[in-house]
Amino acid sequence: xxxxxxxxxxxxxxxxxxxxxxxxxxxxxxxxxxxxxxxxxxxxxxxxxxxxxxxxxxxxxxxxxxxxxxxxxxxxxxxxxxxxxxxxxxxxxxxxxxxxxxxxxxxxxxxxxxxxxxxxxxxxxxxxxxxxxxxxxxxxxxxxxxxxxxxxxxxxxxxxxxxxxxxxxxxxxxxxxxxxxxxxxxxxxxxxxxxxxxxxxxxxxxxxxxxxxxxxxxxxxxxxxxxxxxxxxxxxxxxxxxxxxxxxxxxxxxx
Length: 255
Known about the structure:
Layout: H1 6-9, H2 15-29, H3 35-40, H4 48-63, E1 70-74, H5 80-92, E2 101-105, H6 134-148, E3 159-162, H7 165-175, E4 181-186, H8 191-204, E5 205-213, H9 223-232, E6 238-242, E7 250-254
Parallel strand pairs: 1-2, 1-4, 2-3, 4-5
Antiparallel strand pairs: 5-7, 6-7
Helix pairs in contact: 4-5, 5-6, 7-8, 8-9
C-alpha cells in the first residue's frame, strides 16, 4: 500500500466529511456507465476543493492571455496543473501554438531540505514520490490532451524534465535561449531549490508576468514564504496578490 503523505494525511475535514469522501470514491469506482459516459460525467465526482484549485489556475491563466511566453510548472508532481493549463490554452487561445508548457520535477519526491526548512514525518525528502517512468507518462498524457483539443495535429509542444530543478532549469534555459516566461508555478517546497529556481525564472519573466506560489503563507512549509520575505519583498519591483478562489495560492506580478 502506498505510504500516505500530506496531501491525504493532513485535512481540515471531520469524520463525517471523510466518510462522505470515501463513499464518493466508492461510487466513482462503481459508476454504472461506459467509459465515454464516465469521462463526460466526471463533474459528478469533482469535489469543491479540487474545483477551486482549477478555478485558481484559470484565474492566473487569464492574466497572461496578452503576454508572450511559456508556462513553467516547477514541482509538477503528477502534472495536473500543466494538464489544466493545456486545456485552458485550448479554450482561451486555441491557435496559440507558442504557448508551451514546461514541467520540472525530480519525480522522486521532495529533495534539498536544509537547516532553513521544517521537515517532518509527512514533509521530508521523498514525499510525493511517484511511479517509475512517470515523466514519460506525463509527457504522453500532455500530448494526448493536445491531440484531443482543437488543431490536435499540432502536438508535442510541451516538455517534461526529470531531475533537480537546480540543474534542469538552467540547462533548459541554456538550450532554449529564446524562451521567455509568462507564468510560473512554484511547488518545490524546500528553501534552496525554491530560491535558485526563482532567480532563474525571474530573469526570464516578462514584465507583467506571474510567479505563483502554492504554499507562500503556510507556516508548516516555510520555504516559499522565506524566499518571498528575504529575496523578493524589498528587493524586486512587483505587486503581490492571493487567488480569489484558492487562498493558499499567492502570486507575484513583475513590474
